């Protein structure tokens, strides 16, 4: 019972039997269907529409264009609202946009009686544009005379941040020192989340309020953003989140719920459904930012890292979304994970362009940081002929590290133990030796990467979570969270936490898997690997109050002091002797129905979290590189995670598997491509190369379990970390195998063959 | 703002526009359909089934018979559970019954892919019975050698209760006194609630639990009864109650939800819907008990009531349901409403028979009591040549009355003021004079009746209610009640109460109209005219806590003492000067998003009510009786109610209209008829004569508004009272018009013509 056990997922059976109800399963009868009309240019202005042919399609109810929507700009990212204007998200889009910034921009919407009519009409909408040259790269968008995408940012640069750790400049730090320098541009690509369930919602009006059921990670934030986008009070909106088929950050943006909410108001409150197709999802929702990191680094002969200069350019795409928060995160991890003897100079830019908009995606800037930092580490190790693991042991984030800017600290430190564990698991030393001096077209290599990741968003932003518990007549309980199950197993671990705290066994903890902003305790939702840490604290806090109230009733029934009792396995027991005093079922029935003292025992608490802590880890990968084919086969791979105490080891392992799979695609095959006009070239799962089970090796997982004093149950972040170190570990294994340093992702055959040819290996 | 105003119903617009979602509107896709197979005898035993033809119907999934259900007897009435065994409801039926006790008893159920297949198969189920003589009357069931319907009650008498108020027997009291005596049997008929929406539910399994969405007045009790009927813990059941199309007590019985829940477990948790047809509803759900009251009463020449003897026989039908609670209520009101100088002897019997089962129906035994008491009052007045109003003024429940058994008291007393108000409104004295000495076939008359009605079930049973309030980001609030809106306007008055208590205006109080036992605060539901009184107290209690927490946050924001502030019209104001200090919207946004102190402000409270109070009232009716046609035309009618302070006068008036309409049908046309075999003869709305708008005169309503000190807002019962006094007032008006005392309901043409012929008036 309680935390630390391998409880079977609370939703396992219904998910595998098809009983679990997702948004589409909950649609009421008679919904209208909405379809977004999308721009066929990436940069320009809509001048006019010709709707005649579209309106003539039988079944079309209404067409709403960018000229019909409220003149309100709103932000989409799933951040807690900030009461300070300066920290509020960038409001740079309307429900439908006249100014087109991406290919497939939302310029109108058709509402029809059915899907076929909606699609047919959407295709028949004729649009006249004023078209500008598409700017697909940061360089193009920052160039002199580039068209301005958002008038609030005349140079297309959303933000530029910089900091220095240490004294002086990089140049000053290395001048006259006996150091080896490297100078690389490490570049990551645009990739997409590829959650199984594409964005879907339906909206209708009830008692003058708008009710939106949607596949989201952040129902309470969706409510707030709809309120902003439509200019109506939050209380007049109700958002319901059923089971969702994955999100990975893409559903941490409020993308189509505001439009759907608005459309239902345009048809007298009738229900309207809006399902975003896979093609639209790939091209018109969010991607992981492509970031170019220009890294200069200097290292002494003995491997001591002296100084670094970091310059990152984040390609934002058409809309701000999470904007500069991503590359700021990148810069921070680059800073934190290695220690410079002298200086780190850091600059980061986020730049509007005309490619698909970047948003939140598992890792939130850290996969990009890890690619830059871990390529750098290996490239420096190579430069000074040092074992890359030794290089890391020497220069990595030290025990007791405290971030100089955020003051986030390593409350527990498992980084070096992770490295040791991986080293031993993969036989690092033997393999490094074995793979020296290979010849021939197929070569083997071994590589590694490390990372650190904070837990939640404090102190950058607000961390708050609430929980409600309700006693049932049979002594079981309801557990109501604002935090969301998005496939990661949150409902299961919350159940375990509630059991641990209250003494009511898991089988009697009934968690509500649906969030509904009308009734669900407030929580900002699933992102930033925050829920077990932040929302878990709310479970603990509410659980203690709940247990206290139960014992208070036991004290009344038994005429004993409350403090002398405890609850264990659904029984009120004597705190000392553990002797059974009263069944929870009897207590609960009495509490409900006592003629003397009837009370509906519940508890509700908000936990405002003002803590954070670093999770760390490492990936070790072994590869076989077929150089003429440009093919990398991962033959062995292990992730080792320092994520504090595990609430549910089996679920933790599964979480790592999922992250590693994402990392493999990021490393080897995934990339969202655009043609010169900014039109996506592979916006479907045939051409966009997500790894399948055929491409996936056995995934190994190890943990270093340290009891973090700030975690509610000793736990810290695990949601996002597994996706972070895989790509650089593989890149470094390829480097080890072939001696070729590939500085951009993915390591796909075309790129590798070009590199191997250039290195005259084939 | 607040209580006492005519707020428009919160659900008005969506109910008239068809937007409101009832159970059938919420059905998920792909439900199976269940149909109950009903016995074609009223008394007997099922020996065997031949299912071959039924199972051969395409689309039939499964047939479950009375031989397949758990061997568990369970109770159906919607009472709070009692932790004392002696006070628990009678558990006398299984999910499907082998022992048949009513015509149309539930003996099997067909589950099929669609309605047509289910109905077809249900008709093809062949049943072999052992058949016994049907017992349709109390006399038949109590006769020597009558078949035993439930082995636990060998004489078919469920209960016999008796009490005496005063000293000695009736006979002793009248012996040797100069009194006039009467001896009548006043009899009421079986009538049905005729709610627009017939019982409907659908059930499926989710995470191993059963979820039942149903049209009920009492979701939390449905949960408990399903738990008993299936022998599973309450926590494994979830009951959801959407809008419902009326109940009037019939949905205060848990009739088909347990069977529906069981059936879904028989098809692997797939969703199953069960809709009870109008015919089934009339014959196989619940009816208002037909009760025969044998009344002897003695009155002095001056009109002083000396003594009464009351003997009531309640025809229970086949199953106990609410059983003896009904006729016990009848006896009590008969006792309370008039004062005997010497003695009241009272006996009441509840007897199983083979007609449709009696259950709760608006008034819960009091319409029957009022018919007996008010006929008696007029018959006594006639006997001593006294004005019936004067008789009542002299002998009715006095100011300060306290029930000698329950100790329920008149905390406020408006009975005589109601009589005076009605007297004046209808010009009683003038009309009584005018209608003396009429001749001819059409005669006019005026009559009246009074009643008293307690508020809720305390101290007979538990009165407990809970409420939860949640602050939204915009300073509006959610109001969550366990109490149910069943058409009576509960959601609207709770909204007003919340506004009154918190200072947040009604337009910003968003009440949840759906109850869901997983999340809804506990409340036993809508019955006994309890909700504004008992659940209203919970609103007040939670509201005060909620307001205190809001002001606590205001104190933090403004650095002021909490006690110096108040909330008025969504603004925190200085308590003394009423000067504006802070908008609720600003406070709420800060409370949610403050980086310093974030809290999700909510409040939840249980109110355990240990109070009760009498509501009273009178009806005055004027009629024109066409004696040859046996037709009574109500030409004027007014109900005057002493129901404490009115929360919403317009809704209160509407509530009285509905009750008066029910009273008119009860008086003149409604009666559920059975043939000799116990088969219903008029189980449809063509043959069962519910009054239509064509039959309904203008309904007039008056109130005596007294501030009851025990009511949360000075209010007391109003839900059921309006239905009570109408029938006896009309009967007494007919007596006044024709001199003929009709002692049974309804006063339909056949009966009246027979009476007028017997009296040689036609």
Characterization of this structure:
The structure is a homodimer of 762-residue chains. Chain A has 762 residues and is an alpha+beta fold. The first copy, chain A, has 3 domains: 31-132 and 199-275, Aldehyde Oxidoreductase, domain 3, CATH 3.90.1170.50; 290-458 and 611-758, Aldehyde Oxidoreductase, domain 4, CATH 3.30.365.10; 464-608, Aldehyde Oxidoreductase, domain 4. Chain A is built from 19 helices and 27 strands. In chain A, the strands form 6 sheets. An 8-stranded mixed beta sheet of chain A has the order 3-5-1-12-9-10-11-20, with helices on both faces. A 5-stranded mixed beta sheet of chain A has the order 7-15-14-13-8. A 4-stranded mixed beta sheet of chain A has the order 16-25-26-27, with helices on both faces. In chain A, helix 14 links the parallel strand 18 and strand 19 (509-511). In chain A, helix 6 (219-230) crosses helix 7 (257-265), helix 10 packs parallel to helix 18 and helix 17 packs across helix 18 (726-738).
